[in-house]
Structures are given as structure tokens and as C-alpha cells.
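Thread amino acids onto this structure.
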């Protein structure tokens, strides 16, 4: 058995051929999130082993999101970007049922199951920055690197810890991710708000475009995570 990826509280491994294992050490803490994240897997077996929750499933292939993006010449198609957006929309809404919000997206922890399918499955495997919600606020009491590409303006401007940001901070991060995936080759490392919007030209005036624009509102109170 070979390990494909190991993060703070999860391990995804290849058992053999098309058989894989996902080990979750924090399944009970984020039960709604994980249930949503694995709902489309071809599960063979699942259950507890001591304090770990183990899912055995079948898939043709599992690769990193970075590898998928490279294989697509750094431009995901509309359907894949739509699927990526809806994955994060559903998983973040499920995470809120666990009374948690994700602070940021770390690209190295995003994986793709069955990447050669027209509609692959995405799964985000890092729960390190899943922080408790206090009403609609997230208390930030852990340090983080500000050179992460997928940070909201309020996180970039944060200068003290502990502090609070709105739970909608992650909405902005999802908007940046879709803009990046739409055309990563032209996405500069240091981007401003206008650059992020302009990078969406290839999906202009589509349902996905307007969904992303709702996430990228500079005013957190006016951000919405919707696909309508």
C-alpha cells in the first residue's frame, strides 16, 4: 500500500489497482463535512477502527489538483470549474452544520478522484484551519502564512491574533480559486481584486461567473455562496 497524500488528520492511500483507502482521524468532529465530501465515492466498505474512520473505495485514479491543472494546460474547462465550485459550496455549507468554517484553501491538499471523467470528484483533505464558529464569526487563534494565494482581503489585512473575521472570508477564497483554475497561466502571484475579476473573462456572463462574482464582493456582508 502506498500513501498518496497525508495531511494533518487524514491519509489517502492506494491499496492496489483501483482500490483506495481514506483514513480520517477527525471524522466525528467534522461529520457533516466528511459525509458530504465522500458522498459521490464508490464506497466498498466504511467504519471505525479505534478512533479512526476508514473508507475503502474504488476509483480509476487519484491525482492532485495541481497535476490536473497542468494536464489541462493550466485552464480547466467550464464543467470542471462548475463542479469544483459546487463541491466547495456544498462542503462549506456542510461544515457550517458542524459549527465550523474553513479559514483558507491550501492547494496542495486538494485532490481529484477519477480525473479523466467529464465530471470528476474533488476532495479537500486539510482540516487544520477548520475553526469554530461564534454566530457568523470565526475566531482566529492560530498563525497562518500570508503568502497563500487564496486569502480574503480581511485575512491579508489582519495584524493581530487572536482576532475575528466573518465566516464569509472563505467565500472569497473560493472565488479566487475558480478564477485561478479558469486561467492559471495568466494569474499573477501578486494580484489585486481587479486582476481576479478580469481573469474570469472566459466564463463571462455565465451562471458560474455570477456565482464567483457573488463570492468576490469586497464587502464580506454582501458575499454569498450560491449557484443559481
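Threaded sequence (228 positions):
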Amino acid at each position: 500500500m502506498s500513501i498518496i497524500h497525508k495531511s494533518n488528520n487524514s491519509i489517502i492511500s492506494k491499496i492496489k489497482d483501483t482500490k483506495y483507502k481514506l483514513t480520517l482521524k477527525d471524522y466525528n468532529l467534522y461529520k457533516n463535512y466528511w459525509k458530504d465530501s465522500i458522498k459521490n465515492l464508490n464506497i466498498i466498505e466504511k467504519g471505525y477502527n479505534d478512533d479512526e474512520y476508514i473508507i475503502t473505495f474504488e476509483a480509476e485514479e487519484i491525482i492532485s489538483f495541481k497535476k490536473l491543472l497542468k494536464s489541462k494546460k493550466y485552464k480547466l474547462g467550464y464543467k470542471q470549474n462548475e463542479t469544483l465550485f459546487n463541491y466547495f459550496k456544498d462542503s462549506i455549507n456542510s461544515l457550517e452544520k458542524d459549527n465550523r468554517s474553513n479559514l483558507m484553501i491550501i492547494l496542495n491538499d486538494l485532490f481529484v478522484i477519477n480525473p479523466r471523467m467529464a465530471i470528476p470528484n474533488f476532495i479537500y483533505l486539510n482540516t487544520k484551519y477548520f475553526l469554530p464558529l461564534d454566530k457568523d464569526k470565526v475566531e482566529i487563534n492560530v498563525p497562518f502564512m500570508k503568502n497563500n494565494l487564496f486569502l480574503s482581503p480581511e485575512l491579508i489585512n489582519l495584524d493581530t491574533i487572536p482576532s475575528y473575521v466573518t465566516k464569509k472570508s472563505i467565500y472569497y477564497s473560493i472565488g479566487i480559486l475558480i478564477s485561478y483554475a479558469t486561467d492559471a497561466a495568466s494569474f499573477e502571484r501578486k494580484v489585486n481584486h481587479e486582476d481576479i475579476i478580469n481573469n474570469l473573462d472566459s466564463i463571462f456572463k455565465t451562471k458560474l461567473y455570477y456565482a464567483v462574482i457573488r463570492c468576490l464582493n469586497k464587502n464580506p456582508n454582501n458575499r454569498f455562496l450560491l449557484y443559481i
